[in-house]
Amino acid sequence: MGKVKEFLFKNTSTRQTVLKNAFWLSAGQIGSRVLRAFIIIYAARILGAAEYGVFSYVLGLAGFFSIFSDIGLTPILTREVSQKPERAGNYFSTTFVLKTGLLLATALLVIFVAPHFTDIQAAQALVPFAALLIIFDNIREFCAGFFRGKEKMELEALLVIATNVAITVFGFIILYRYATAGALTLTYILSASTGAIVGIFVLRKQFAKLFSAFRRALVSPILRSALPIAMLSVVGAFMLNIDIIMLGIYRAAESVGLYSAGQKVVQILYTLPAILATTLYPVFSRFVSTKNKEGKRKSIERGLAATVLIAAPLAIGGFILAKQILFFLYGAEYVPATLTFQLLILTPLLVFPGTLLNNFVVAHDAQKLLIPYATAASIGNVALDALLIPTYGIAGCAFATILVSVIYNGGAYRIANTLGTFTLARHTKKIATATVAMGVVTATLNALGIHVLVTIGISALIYVGLLYLMREQTLVEIKSVLPM
Fold it and tell me: I need a surface site. Which of 78, 188, 220, 261 has the fewest CB within 10 A?
C-alpha cells in the first residue's frame, strides 16, 4: 500500500513522474469524458440532429472566440513554473491579471459580434450565453496550467472530474425537463463554473496574493513569449471550429448535427494524446533548460511511440466499425454520417503525434517556427471547405480536415526534428504488425455480425496481447515502473 501511495502522490524520478501524472490525467480525463459522453449521446438522441446541430454551432462559435481569451498565456505559465519554481507565485499573479483583461474583452466580442456569424436564428439567441462558458472554462484551464507546471496532475484531475460530474448531473436533470439546445448550453455553463470554483478553492492562497505577487517587469517577457503561441492558438481553434462554422453557412442545422456526432467521438479520443503531451511538457521544458540532449531525445521518441501505439488501433478499428459505432451511440438517424466518421477517425494517426510535437517545439520557445504551417493549414481549411462542402457535404468537410492535418502536423514533425534529432520508424514496427493483425480480426468479427462492443473488446485484447508477446518497449517500460 505504501508503494502505491508513493507512486501516486510523490515525484521520485522522471519516468515515475511521467507515469504518475499520466495516470491522474487519464483517470480525470478519460473517466470524466466517459461521463460526458453519456450526456452527449443522450442529448443527441433526444434533441435530434437539427436541434443538436444548433447547440454544436453555438459551442463551435464559443470555441472560435475563446482563442482571444488566452493568447498562449496558460502554456507560458506552465513552462515558466516548471523551469523557475521559485518564481511560480509571481508568474501566476502576473499572468492571471493579463488573462482577466482578455476574458472581459472576449466576453464583449461574443455578446455583440458572434451572433452576426450565423443565419441560424435559434443559434443567434444562444450565442451571447457562450461568454459565460468561455470565462469559467478559461479560469479552470488556467488553474490546471499551474498544476501542470508543478507536475501535480492529480489536482488537475480533480478539476476535470468535478467539471464532468457536474455536466452529467446537471445535464440529465435539466434535459429531462427541457429537451432544447438552450438547456444543453446551460448545463455546459453550470459544469464549467463548477470546475472554476474548485480550481479557485484549491489555489486560494495563490489568488489571495494576486496583487502583491504581481510583477510589472514580467508583463513584457510573458507577452513576447506568448505572442507566437497566441497565433498558433488562433489557428488551432480556427481549424477545430471552422468546419462547423462553414457547414452552418452552406448547409442546414441537420448537417451540422450529423457532422458533430462523429466529430465529438473523435474529439474525445484527442484527449488521449493531450494527456501524454501535457504530462511530458514540463519534462521537455526541464531537459531543454538543462541542455540534456539525450534525455530530450529519449523522451520524445518514447512519447511518439506511445501516441502511435494508441492511435493506430483506434483509427483502423474505428474505420472498420464506423457504421456500427454511430448506430450504437446515436441511433439510425445518424448512420448517414458513416463516411464522414470514417474519414475523421483516421485523423488520430496525424493529430496524436502532432500534439506531442507541438509541445516539444513550445518547450524550446520555438513556436514561431510553426506559424507558417499553421497559417497555410488555416487558409487551406477555409478554401477546401468552400470548395468541397457545396458538392460533397459533410464528407467533403471531413476530407478537408485530413488534408490540413497533413500540412500542419507534417510541419511540426519537420521542425521538432531540427530541434532534437530523433527517430520514430524503428519504434513502431511491432505496433504496425499488431495493428494489421487486429484489423483482420476486427473485420472478420464485424462481417460475422458480432455485436460492436464485443468486437471492440476482443480486438483490444488481441492487440495488447500481441504487443505483450512481442515485448513492445513502451509496455515493458510501463510495467517496470508500476508498483507491483
Answer: 220
Return the exposure string of 214-252: e unless at least 16 CB atoms fall within 10 Å of the residue's CB, then b: beeebeeebbebbebbbbbbbbbbbbbbbbbbbbbebbe
3-state secondary structure of 84: coil
- Three-state SS across 286-308? HHHHCCCHHHHHHHHHHHHHHHH
Buried b / exposed e across 371-409, counting CB within 10 Å, b at 16+?
bebbbebbebbbebbeebbeeebbbbbbbbbeebbebbb
What would the pLDDT profile of 201-214 be if each residue is shown by its tens digit?
999 998 998 888 88
Extract the C-alpha cell encoding 46.
Answer: 433526444
8-state DSSP, 62: H
The Cα 397–Cα 198 span in angstroms is 38
CB 435 within 8 A of CB 313: yes
* Tens of pLDDT, residues 308-322: 898 999 999 999 999
Place of cell 468546419: 243
Mean pLDDT of 44-67: 73
Among positive and negative, which fits the CA dihedral 276, 277, 283, 284? positive
Secondary element (H or E) of residue 67:
none
